[in-house]
From TrEMBL:
Cytoplasm recorded as keyword: no
Name of protein: Recombination protein RecR
Domain Toprim: 81-176
Native organism: Ferruginibacter yonginensis
Record keywords: DNA damage, DNA recombination, DNA repair, Metal-binding, Zinc, Zinc-finger
Gene3D superfamilies attached to this UniProt entry: 3.40.1360.10, 6.10.250.240, RecR Domain 1
NCBIfam families for the chain: recR (TIGR00615)
Keyword Disulfide bond belongs to the record: no
């Protein structure tokens, strides 16, 4: 792509570094900004810089936060004896959007994946185990992606919790709502059958 302006090219290159943004889209976004009032663009860039400078990770659950302890952890209405373990912050947002969970979270920052250089030390596993031992936690719900790495992580943490009497559960896995049996892979169908629930329970939910 040829540019008549180095300033324009620099801005396009910055936008193109964002995930999912190609050069063409980057150019469209930058040209949009060129047409905007200077104060609006200053506000835009200040908002991004301020977010990056001031954002924190909760000292208890590692969720993203404006304060030292996030607003979920510091909410007295949340069930303090249940922790939902997730891989990343997007998962917290997704589960919060369902409005079906009123406990606390713990963000691992990934799952154990030796091929990606991610071992237990790179994740917040130790902090999770400390929480379970010190916070009167009764249930730990694993809401990890259903794959080998997720299962390895559940197994690893489960072993560390053997000595505690905390209840360990995982979210149900199976056929997606609206999905069709014939298109489900074998593993999904197998998990759906082994994790079957009673119809009474299904209907009451
Ligand atoms: Zn928190």
């Amino acid at each position: 792509m040829q540019f008549s302006s180095q300033l324009l090219e620099n801005a396009v290159n910055e936008f193109a570094k964002l995930p999912g943004i190609g050069k063409k889209t980057a150019l469209r976004l930058v040209l949009h900004l060129v047409k905007q009032d200077e104060t609006l663009v200053a506000h835009f860039s200040n908002t991004i810089a301020k977010m990056r400078n001031e954002i924190k990770f909760c000292n208890r659950c590692y969720n993203i936060s404006d304060t030292v302890t996030c607003n979920i952890c510091s909410n007295p209405m949340r069930q303090q004896n249940t922790i939902c373990v997730v891989e990343n912050i997007r998962d917290v947002i997704a589960i919060e959007n369902t409005q079906q969970f009123s406990g606390l979270y713990h963000v691992l920052g990934g799952v154990i994946s030796p091929l990606d250089g991610l071992g237990p030390e790179q994740l917040t596993i130790e902090a999770l185990v400390n929480r379970i031992q010190n916070e009167a936690i009764e249930e730990v719900i694993f809401a990890l992606n259903p794959n080998i790495q997720g299962d390895t992580t559940i197994y690893y943490i489960g072993r560390m919790l053997k000595e505690t009497n905390v209840k360990i559960t995982t979210i149900a896995r199976g056929i997606a709502f609206g999905g069709e049996l014939e298109f489900a892979d074998e593993m999904t169908l197998a998990k759906s059958i082994s994790n079957r629930i009673t119809v009474d329970h299904y209907i009451s939910n």
